[in-house]
Amino acid sequence: MIITKSKPKEAVLRSLEDHERVFIVGCGTCATLCQTGGEEQVNEMANILGKKACGKVVVETPCDIRILRRDLSSHSNIIAASDAILALCCGSGAQAIGEFTDKIVIPGLDTLFVGETERIGRFYERCRACGECIIHETGGICPIVRCAKGLLNGPCGGMANGKCEAGGHVRDCAWVLIYKRLEGQGMVEKFKEIRKVRDRSKKAEPQELKTR
Amino acid sequence: MRRAYSDFMKALNDGKFVFTGEIEPKKTTKLEGIIEAAKVLKNHVVACNVTDNPRARAYLSSLVASYVIQRDVGLETICHITVRDRNRLALISDLLGASALGIKNVLVISGDHTTGGDNPGAMPVYDLDSTQFVQMVRGMVDKGIDLNGNPIDGMVKLHVGVVGNPNADPLEVELCKVERKIDAGAEFIQTQIVFDVEKAKRFVKELNSSVPVLIGIFPCKSHRIAEFIANKIPGISVPKEYIEGLKSAGASGNGSEIINKIDMVNVEYFSTLIKELRRTTKTAGIHIMTMGYESIVGKITDRALDGTSR
């Protein structure tokens, strides 16, 4: 899931200062689960904006142009007459809205990470979308995202008592977690292997996937 | 055994017990401080490490400082290079530059995380990790190629070392990591500072390294520094008797008397530790970190070698 966080209300209002008619678009998937762009947050934002809010809708998945077309079709006249769209969804959704409507898009959320949900309000980054998954070598734990330095051959010298130096020895060191997991699985030999340098060119340009 | 380009590696290869010192360039354009420190160390150590933005603080370049120390003082250096601040292009570039300037030893450091440094908004790089850095140096030195196989004009005459931490808990994870770096081609190991001789002995024995291990020590100029390390640096234990010795040494007397007594505590404590390591383990040498207390180095090395040969 894409984890998002609401921008401070004052910051959103400042971004909307020059716009008279604002249409609000929420997200029925990730932002709803994060409680940042669901029905409740869209309604709350409409109340805050008052007369400025000319319309609102929660699109099932605003990052999908097909769904966007479907869910915005009944609002096309209001959107056409609006000055800007306030997007309560991730950056991918916000850009899709801009691309589809050709309107000024104001992001109401900050997109944080690809995450795992423990419960509502507790999300943990678990994937950096690096394009080269190796968690079968690391006990199912991703060192790219869970090691603060993204090391492939950790731990670093900052590990103390199994904790990570980044953030002041509070979080578990990913490489100690990896060692313990592999040890439990009888695969410590995997830990000892040298993992080679990454080909960063895979992520050096905007990514596209065209399979058909 | 690989060919030794440096006096440091020659001494290790000859089986001599080796001392190294450490100099930390600061946020300055002045070179006098590092030159003076190097002069104090010169007759007591084979080489001195030169730190690279320690604790993620942006300081005068380790490469420049290393070059100046070698040129102006004639003391061989072990130039630290962190993978935190440079991608592979910059690392290759600095290694070529180091070799061209006559620097013969480098120590790769992951580097303390940027968020704890003096420019916490910086982007941490970590394009390579320290193990991969060692592999890259091996290609450059042994095969004359860079990381992507591109040929290098001229020989790269460098020795690459890595860091180990005898204080690490769990130690078995640290040992696996250091073994990986040795497998990658590291030629020597210098360790994090140790006060507890038993931790140093356990590290050397359990690692049973095929390459020389230099144990790191840090003589403290006051009991407050020792207490700070004990209380604020996670994982490093400082024996109470050492702290108490420093405390009572600093309790009375005038300035120079106190300095002499503090020196005596350090000389006694660390020479005993060094002799114990030499007697019971295959420790190849001692890396002495001082941070401004360079005057203690010769006193410790003299006492530690008292009655023995280097």
Strand-helix topology:
The complex is a heterodimer of chains A (212) and B (310).
Chain A: E1 2-6, H1 9-15, E2 22-27, H2 30-33, H3 39-49, E3 53-59, H4 65-72, H5 76-81, E4 84-88, H6 91-101, E5 104-107, E6 109-119, E7 122-127, H7 143-146, H8 174-184, H9 188-192
Parallel strand pairs in A: 2-3, 2-4, 4-5
Antiparallel strand pairs in A: 1-6, 6-7
Chain B: H1 7-13, E1 18-23, H2 32-41, E2 47-50, H3 62-73, E3 76-82, H4 88-100, E4 105-109, H5 130-143, E5 159-164, H6 171-184, E6 188-193, H7 197-207, E7 213-217, H8 223-232, H9 240-249, H10 255-280, E8 285-288, H11 295-304
Parallel strand pairs in B: 1-2, 1-8, 2-3, 3-4, 4-5, 5-6, 6-7, 7-8
Helix pairs in contact in B: 2-3, 5-6, 8-9, 9-10, 10-11
Describe the fold and architecture.
The complex is a heterodimer of chains A (212) and B (310). Chain A has 212 residues and is an alpha/beta fold. Chain A folds into 2 domains: 2-112, Rossmann fold, CATH 3.40.50; 130-199, no CATH class. Chain A has helices spanning 9-15, 30-33, 39-49, 65-72, 76-81, 91-101, 143-146, 174-184, 188-192, and strands at residues 2-6, 22-27, 53-59, 84-88, 104-107, 109-119, 122-127. Chain A is elongated and about 65 Å long. The relative contact order of chain A is 0.12. Chain B contains 11 helices and 8 strands. Chain B has helices at residues 7-13, 32-41, 62-73, 88-100, 130-143, 171-184, 197-207, 223-232, 240-249, 255-280, 295-304, and strands spanning 18-23, 47-50, 76-82, 105-109, 159-164, 188-193, 213-217, 285-288. In chain B, strands 1-2-3-4-5-6-7-8 form an 8-stranded parallel barrel, surrounded by 7 helices. In chain B, helix 2 packs across helix 3 (62-73). The longest helix of chain B has 26 residues, at 255-280. The relative contact order of chain B is 0.13. The model of chain B has no long low-confidence stretch (mean pLDDT 96). At the A-B interface, helix 8 and helix 9 of A face helix 5 and helix 6 of B.
